[in-house]
Every structure is written in C-alpha cells, then in structure tokens.
Amino acid sequence: QVQLVESGGGLVQAGDSLRLSCVSSGQTFSSMGWFRQAPGKEREFVAGISWTTNYADFVKGRFTISTDNAKNTVHLQMNSLKPEDTARYYCAAKAGFLDMWSPKNMDYWGKGTLVTVSS
Fold first, then answer.
1. Residue 71 dihedral angles phi and psi, to the nearest 5°
2. What dihedral do alpha carbons 24, 40, 78, 76 form, nearest 10°?
3. Average pLDDT taken over every residue of the chain
4. Who's near 59: CB < 8 A, 6+ residues apart?
5. Largest Cα–Cα distance of the chain, in whole Å?
6. Is the pLDDT confidence value at 54 over 90?
7. Cβ(10)–Cβ(65) under 8 Å?
8. Separation between Cα atoms, residue 3 and residue 26, nearest integer Å
9. For FRET with 33, which of 44, 97, 115, 117 sits at 20 to 30 Å CA-CA?
10. Tell me, what's the pLDDT at 71?
C-alpha cells in the first residue's frame, strides 16, 4: 500500500523558515513534489523533482526542494515565508516522469500539513 506522509508544518511569523518533509512507502517514484491549497483557492503547484527540478514562480529564490538518493523522501525548505504562503501543503508523487506539474497528473497524495504564516 502506497503512503505519503507529510510533516513539518506549523505557525510561524513572516520572514521565518520551515522545512517540510514527506516520506513515501510502498513504492519508489520517479516524480515527487509539493502542491498547496489555501482556503477558497484551487490546489497549485509549488515545487517538484522529476527529469528536472521545477518551481512555481512565486517561490523561486525562497523555497528549495530536495530528495534523498532513494527518492523515498522529499523535503521542501521554505525561507522568507510570507503570509500569502499560508496553505495546506500536500506531497504528491507519480510513478513516471513528468513534464507538466498539474494536480491531475499526480498518482498519489498525502493528507497535507498546514503552514500558517502570520504578519
């Protein structure tokens, strides 16, 4: 049974940092990444590793995604957090490689971890 389990969310102040982690079990994935969903908004891509590493424009220079060698764990280092980064962050994975990071293209999802950034 495939499971993705996120950790590391919390309440921080603007300018602070958080490190999210996602541990997968049951399968090795070629693509792993992070999406987020704020209240009343659609789920959006944040960062992902597949053929290449990709970032949403709104996190470039602030967030860094990394995986371990076995690619069963993916991390998201988030620096210089802003109130608009407040959302539930979801780990997602796909067995194959990805050219387009869209929620509909992912095979598996975690339950998410909540990140709240106060001003």
1. 55, 30
2. 10
3. 95
4. 46, 47, 78, 85
5. 40
6. yes
7. no
8. 7
9. 117
10. 60
Residues across the chain: 119
Q: Residue 93: name the closest of 9, 20, 34, 21 by CA.
A: 34
Residues with Cβ < 8 Å from 105, sequence gap 6 or more? 94, 98
Four-point Cα dihedral 105, 19, 68, 50, nearest 10: 30
Q: Which two tokens stand for residue 93?
A: 């994975």
Nearest to 1 by CA among 29, 26, 30: 26
69: pLDDT strictly greater than 70: no
Q: Tell me which residue has tokens 């608009």.
A: 84
Phi-psi region of 8 (alpha: psi -120 to 50; beta: other; left: phi over 0): left
State how far the Cα of 107 lies from the Cα of 114, in Å rounded to an integer.
21
**pLDDT value at position 103?**
96
Average pLDDT over residues 65-91: 92
Structure tokens at 16: 């602070």
Rounded CA-CA distance 36/59 in Å is 12
d(Cα 62, Cα 58) in Å, to the nearest integer?
9
